[in-house]
């Protein structure tokens, strides 16, 4: 928590993750990378790992809340979701084929994952609704060309299930936000059906965040959009200029939370990350007139 305060984070996440049957390979540098899923037929369902121990997850959340008390740093309950967890359990190409060849199996896997995550969501929102800052769910549903699957198919497959997942959070009065990469033009209207109030990280390669805010102002907030390429290779002055541009164009009226366009990874120099934070502190203040 002390680290979060020192580097300018307003909140930290505690993860409630269930992504079964992922296959990883270790690279030469020691990092692990997803390469495929294990479920290719109904016979492979027995390969699904047991869900994480919910008590262990809740104990971890409680420890974070205890440490965060009085610091001004919020604690966010962060859940993996159902679409990309199902996709990853099967593998990208096989998932796309299975949508047409064996939709029942796709739905069955999705429902297994949904049951686990609903149980976690209910437990968090019943016991800690007054303590957590908000609810975040991770579900990469888009690429640079838009939704991964046909919009009507997505609505039929995902929306009702997602409403079930998010129902405990909505009942508890918690703000719900989401993470998805990709082009958001087709995505935002679907998120509004779910009552989602914020989206991360609004990748600048695929999205004009200024146009998105103008179109969706008052309906959904935007997180991120500071290009990680700039954070990796840019100078501190270039980063400061970009942060100021974002804040000048997006801060008025609310609906923007500054941050990076994807995860802060090892290749980003700490001085550049801090340049973003310091520029946000310098230029992010509102001036009250009158």
From TrEMBL:
GO terms for molecular function: uroporphyrinogen decarboxylase activity. It holds the Pfam family URO-D. GO terms for biological process: porphyrin-containing compound biosynthetic process. Gene3D superfamilies: 3.20.20.210. Residues 34-282 form the Uroporphyrinogen decarboxylase (URO-D) domain. InterPro entries: Methanogen_methyltrans (IPR052024), UROD/MetE-like_sf (IPR038071), Uroporphyrinogen_deCOase (IPR000257). This is Uroporphyrinogen decarboxylase (URO-D) domain-containing protein.
């Amino acid at each position: 928590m002390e680290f979060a305060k020192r580097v300018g984070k307003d909140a930290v996440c505690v993860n409630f993750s269930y992504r079964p049957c992922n296959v990883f390979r270790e690279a030469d540098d020691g990092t692990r990378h997803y390469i495929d899923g294990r479920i290719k037929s109904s016979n492979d369902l027995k390969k699904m790992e047991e869900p994480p121990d919910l008590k262990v997850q809740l104990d971890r959340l409680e420890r974070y809340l205890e440490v965060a008390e009085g610091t001004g740093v919020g604690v966010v309950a962060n859940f993996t979701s159902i679409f990309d967890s199902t996709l990853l359990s099967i593998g990208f190409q096989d998932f796309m084929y299975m949508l047409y060849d064996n939709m029942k199996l796709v739905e069955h896997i999705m429902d297994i994952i949904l049951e686990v995550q609903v149980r976690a969501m209910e437990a968090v929102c019943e016991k800690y609704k007054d303590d957590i800052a908000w609810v975040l769910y991770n579900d990469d549903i888009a690429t640079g060309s838009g939704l991964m699957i046909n919009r009507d198919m997505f609505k039929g497959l995902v929306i009702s299930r997602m409403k079930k997942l998010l129902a405990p959070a909505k009942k508890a009065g918690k703000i719900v936000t989401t993470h998805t990469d990709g082009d958001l033009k087709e995505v935002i209207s679907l998120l509004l059906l779910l009552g989602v109030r914020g989206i991360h990280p609004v990748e600048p390669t695929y999205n004009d965040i200024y146009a998105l805010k103008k179109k969706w102002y008052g309906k959904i907030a935007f997180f991120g959009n500071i290009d990680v390429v700039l954070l990796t290779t840019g100078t501190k002055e270039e980063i400061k200029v970009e942060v100021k541009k974002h804040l000048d164009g997006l801060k008025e009226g609310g609906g923007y939370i500054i941050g990076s366009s994807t995860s802060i990874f090892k290749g980003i120099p700490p001085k550049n990350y801090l340049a973003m934070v310091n520029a946000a502190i310098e230029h992010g203040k509102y001036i009250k007139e009158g």
